[in-house]
Specification:
Elements: E1 2-9, E2 15-21, E3 32-35, E4 39-45, H1 52-61, H2 67-74, E5 92-99, E6 105-111, E7 119-126, E8 129-136, H3 140-152, H4 158-171, E9 186-192, E10 203-207, H5 213-232, H6 239-245, H7 255-264
Antiparallel strand pairs: 1-2, 1-8, 2-9, 3-4, 4-5, 5-6, 7-8, 9-10
Length: about 260
């Protein structure tokens, strides 16, 4: 199971990406990326068979190429042999959201015909936010549930919106064949403001080889955000943050969150 979303706000120029996968032990920073002020991309999940795909995709994000052209270029990469499998781009999913130099924001997704299990992808725009979503080994109803919650949280900042999207995808019945309680062993979320240094987004959280990947990602982000808000607001937490935290119901049994929630309430 792999589920990801790439987002870009054409007004604030903020870019974000989130990805969870049932595959552990890989550096997920080689599956997705954000480029401050430009956009975000996901190159999943069998793209890990050949990391040249990621390197090429990240390089093209800074060039005068549309997302559609980027995907066409990636489909020409000659794959290395892995476990005697040489299916090329047809085992991969790609998704890109990119602000062109003209100011127009373009997005494009691709799912190979031999990508594992049930697979879905779509792109669209919700107000000022452009998005590209990809998922495999996910039933269509699960993918649609994640999309629906994404569209219903337009008032959320990018990190919370991405985490909620990923969380609903798992709660709604994401593939559980690899772990006991969750459909993911690894995950990543990155969000960059337009002035962030390249390679240093202000949100950059990775969890690898964990049976509670999504909970760990969310908990680390919440702890970071609550600490910052308390510094800014003289030790207080605002009502808006409390309301956002209520959406992360799957954290209720996380030991770190339980103690934190009682102090935030």
């Amino acid at each position: 199971m792999t589920l990801s979303v790439c987002v870009f706000d054409e007004v604030t120029k903020e870019a974000g990406v989130g990805l969870v996968s049932c595959v552990g032990g890989f550096d997920l920073r080689k599956t997705c990326f954000v480029v401050p002020g430009i956009g975000a991309g996901a190159v999943q999940a069998s793209a890990l068979l050949d990391l040249r795909l990621f390197d090429q995709a990240q390089k093209m994000m800074g060039e005068l190429l549309t997302p559609a052209t980027m995907i066409e270029v990636l489909r020409t990469v000659n794959y290395q042999r892995f476990l005697s499998i040489t299916k090329g781009h047809e085992v991969c999913q790609f998704g890109f959201v990119k602000r062109m130099r003209s100011g127009e924001v373009l997005k494009k997704t691709f799912t190979g015909s031999r990508c594992f299990g049930e697979k879905n992808d779509l792109s669209g725009v919700d107000g000022n936010v452009h998005y590209a979503m990809q998922g495999n080994l996910l039933r269509p109803a699960v993918f649609e549930a994640a999309r629906a919650i994404f569209l219903s949280t337009s008032d959320f900042p990018f990190p919370e919106r991405i985490l909620t999207f990923l969380g609903v995808g798992l709660e709604a019945g994401g593939d559980k064949r690899s772990v006991q309680t969750e459909g993911a062993l690894s995950g990543i979320i990155q969000v960059a403001r337009p002035n962030d240094p390249v390679g240093k987004p202000y949100v950059d959280i990775v969890d690898v080889d964990s049976q509670e990947t999504l909970k760990n990602l969310t908990w680390r982000f919440i702890r970071q955000k609550v600490r910052k808000e308390r510094r800014v607001n003289g030790g207080r937490v605002t009502d808006s943050l409390r309301q956002q935290l209520e959406h992360f119901r799957y954290l209720e049994d996380h030991p770190g969150y339980r103690g934190y929630a009682s102090r935030v309430a």
